[in-house]
Amino acid sequence: MEITTKVIETIKDKEVTQIRLINDNGVEAHLITLGATWQAFLVPQVDGTKKNIVLGFDTPSHYNQNGIAAGQSIGRVAGRIKNGQFSISDQDYQVAQNNNGNALHGGPNGFHRQHWDYELVEDKDTIGVKFIYHAKEEIDDFPGDMTVSALYLLDNENKLTVSYTATDVTKDTLFNPTNHVYFNLSDKQDLSSHELAIKADYVLESDDNLIPTGVKKEVANTPYDFRIAKPIVPAIEATGGIDDAFIVEATDNQPIAILTDKDSHDTVSIYSDRNAIVIYSFNFPEDNVYFARDNGLENKKHEGIAMEAQTLPDAINHPDFGNTIIKKVETVTHSITFSYTKEI
């Protein structure tokens, strides 16, 4: 296994370093210090080439020029908080409203906009990088300060695990991070050859601004029923585009979701320790966005699928959605594993 590092851009006097993790099978995970971002995931093909199966940008500053958050670390809270308002221990808080009057993905100064420090990690079974960021109330509006780490580990079973840890917490606050990775496992700019399975009996109902109403809807007999793997495009067409939170049951040895490209047989299985996965079918491409894997072509609607493992969105305002509160001086870790296989 091999780790390489390289400064690939300087943004406002801050160097952005790329860390490449390469396992013995030739699988490569590229990470950058801006946003503790998963920049690329290269997997060997039968013809000897490597295919990048995630959406990202070669130039780090391009991440700051759109709202896509491709492969970026999201926090302190993934998803939306209604009106940017919540209460902890009878104390009311207001954070920045950056999406239709609501708080989205940690607000305008969330984890994905920050430059993180890093240190390399290596043992006999894994290689990795640990990104570190000191989150401050004066920067992101969330109560208290905390030290956050994003630890990416790659092994020789082609599993990439990211573990988010919050520690040194100075005030009771919120912590529900995720990685906003988008996958396209094919060599096309669409999802026509993709099948998706999600271990979910229920999906959250949401309003026109994608705020959960509190209602949990059964997926049976709806386009949202992915309990048995099926092509994803018909579901996208039937719904007008997926941007929904599926309720899952976390287990150590069973994936919560499996995405497969039927042409190449490339497959990614996702494991999580939390109760939800948000699926977003890239419904809103942006002008002048060119993902690295697209070789100079502009981004297209529905060309990728974001798979965001987390606790249910707006959980702080719904007591039965799960706990996203982290107490002062408490340490909390959440992990997500992405397992790559070629199912032939």
Overview of the molecule:
- By secondary structure, this protein is mainly beta.
- It has one domain (2-342): Beta-galactosidase, Chain A, domain 5 (Distorted Sandwich).
- Helices cover 3% and strands 44% of the residues.
- The protein has helices at 137-140, 233-239, and strands spanning 2-11, 14-22, 28-32, 37-44, 50-52, 73-74, 80-81, 85-88, 91-94, 103-104, 117-122, 126-135, 146-155, 159-167, 173-174, 178-179, 182-183, 194-198, 200-206, 212-218, 230-231, 243-248, 257-261, 266-272, 276-280, 305-310, 325-326, 332-342.
- It has a 9-stranded antiparallel sheet with strand order 11-12-13-14-28-24-23-18-21. The chain has a 6-stranded antiparallel sheet with strand order 17-26-25-22-19-20, with no helix packed on it. It has a 5-stranded antiparallel sheet with strand order 1-2-3-4-5, with no helix packed on it.
- The protein is globular and about 60 Å long.
List keywords for this structure.
344 residues; mainly beta; Beta-galactosidase, Chain A, domain 5; nine-stranded antiparallel sheet; globular
Radius of gyration: 19 Å
The CATH architecture category equals Distorted Sandwich
Stretches where pLDDT is under 50 for at least 5 consecutive residues are none
Strand content: 35-45%
CATH class: Mainly Beta
**Which fold name is given in CATH as the topology?**
Beta-galactosidase, Chain A, domain 5
Largest β sheet strand count, sense and barrel closure: 9 strands, antiparallel
User: Order of strands across the biggest sheet?
Assistant: 11-12-13-14-28-24-23-18-21
Decide which structural class fits the backbone. Answer: mainly beta
What is the helix fraction of residues, given as a range? Answer: under 10%
Order of helices and strands: EEEEEEEEEEEEHEEEEEEEEEHEEEEEEE
Work out the count of structural domains. Answer: 1
**Structural shape:** globular
Q: Compute the average pLDDT.
A: 97
Q: What's the helix count?
A: 2
End-to-end distance, in Å? Answer: 25 Å
Number of strands: 28
